[in-house]
Sequence to fold (297 residues):
Amino acid sequence: MRTVRAAGVLLLIAYASHRLAAQDPSGISESQSVLSPLIDSYGVSGAEGPVRELVKRLLPAWAKSETDTAGNLWVRLGQGNPLIVFVAHMDEIGFRVTAVRDDGSLELEPRGGFIASLFEAQPALVHTDKGDVAGVFMPRDSGFTHHTAPPLRVDVGATSRAGALARGVSPGATVTMPKQFVRLAGTRATGRSFDDRVGDAAQILALRHLDRAALKHQVIFIWSVREEIGLEGAGVAAAALGTAPRRVHAIDTFVSADSPLELPNFAVAPIGAGAVARALDNSSVTPPAYVDSLVHL
Fold:
């Protein structure tokens, strides 16, 4: 499959950019009504169920969705060639509990790549079958030493293994920071897991505003799982699709690169200047003609 990666930055890249300009309060309001609950939902890689159910509820009433064996959500519409596929992932970075220590603290394994030290001394949420359990990511001996820091752990306030288990915490539970969608000035917002709830929202809004009567070929929208731990859901979708798609567009986020700390040659993509067409990454190079056709749209 040929892949073009279209990356959306921050808020409101869902459908035609003129509809999402600051002069269009209705477009802004609708986009926020979709993106906000997606940001506020939790779905660490491998535990995307709540996000998937929310996506289903946010889809237009006519959309018929199906879930494959990996947990990817599919919506198919139209008939004939060429087949065009759009993919956005539902999972977010976080942790999974691997063990509960005798002192009640939780051992963790990362689910996705990030800077672990940023979590130290920050609030934590352990997502259990009984509900969310509050905790804190325990500070480590890492600030003033040069040795490798020990793995992160979480303290939920228990003083024994039995106490932690009594709160519903057990190996396999996922862990995140608490998060909240917060609207800023203009068309901007902040929150954790914009990667890739922005892409999820963009696809939902695209389906809501799609003119099905004008569609002359088949289009598939996929909300994939376990992207942050190695594109596992996308791999299952790719195997199912085979060589049938003409193009596959991955709708994801991108570094804004307009801060004083970023080098201009890294990626000139200032916030507010529109979506980004990413034609080069560590796994693919998109032909210039494909990029030009995407920009032309």
Remarks:
- The chain is about 25% helix and 25% strand.
- Residues 1-23 have pLDDT under 50 and may be disordered.
- The first helix runs from residue 25 to 40.
- The chain has two domains: 3-92+193-296, 94-176.
